[in-house]
């Protein structure tokens, strides 16, 4: 198993409060993530630690079904999702930091454990593809919020 760690950030010209709720509700990811095809919350209720979502994604030609659990959540500041099922264990941590003029720095740290042979590609190719996908998704999020 290979660990892929990617960190990305961008600035959005809105206060964190106007970004956070949309970002932390995983069902909204289909609007800005190029790999998320469908998402559904697995149980009703508010978004809080312990909430789970079932995600259907398509990455490098492969369909994946993964369940994520919200393991950290501080409204308007940060949240972390951890996969609890699926082929590639992963953790996605989003942090929002207020900066000058009502803008927000949004950062993402992704740690993905790629199972060798799963995508039949070498680790540098997979890492590059994940990095490009995350960069593109964050840019789409940025463009949607401007």
Q: How many domain units?
A: 1
CATH fold-level topology: Alpha-D-Glucose-1,6-Bisphosphate, Chain A, domain 4
What is the tally of beta strands? Answer: 7
> Beta-sheet strand percentage?
over 45%
Mean pLDDT across all residues, rounded? 89
Secondary-structure element order, N to C: EHEEEEEEH
Low-confidence stretches: none
The major sheet is characterized as: 7 strands, antiparallel
Tally of helical segments: 2
Residues in helices, as a percent range? 10-25%
**CATH class descriptor:** Alpha Beta
CATH superfamily: START domain
Strand order of the largest sheet: 1-7-6-5-4-3-2
Overall form: globular
| Known CATH architecture | 2-Layer Sandwich
Could you give a short description of this structure?
The protein is an alpha+beta fold. The chain is 22% helix and 47% strand.
Task: Break the fold down into its secondary structure elements and pairings.
Blueprint: E1 2-12, H1 16-24, E2 36-41, E3 52-59, E4 62-74, E5 78-85, E6 90-99, E7 103-114, H2 123-145
Antiparallel strand pairs: 1-7, 2-3, 3-4, 4-5, 5-6, 6-7
Question: What does this molecule look like?
Answer:
The protein has 146 residues and is α+β, with helices and mostly antiparallel strands. It has one domain (2-145): 2-Layer Sandwich (Alpha-D-Glucose-1,6-Bisphosphate, Chain A, domain 4), CATH 3.30.530. Helix content is 22%, strand content 47%. Strands 1-7-6-5-4-3-2 form a seven-stranded antiparallel β-sheet, covered by helices on one side. Strand 6 (90-99) and strand 7 form a beta hairpin. The longest helix is centred in the C-terminal third of the chain and has 23 residues, at 123-145. The radius of gyration is 15 Å and the shape is globular. The model has no long low-confidence stretch (mean pLDDT 89).
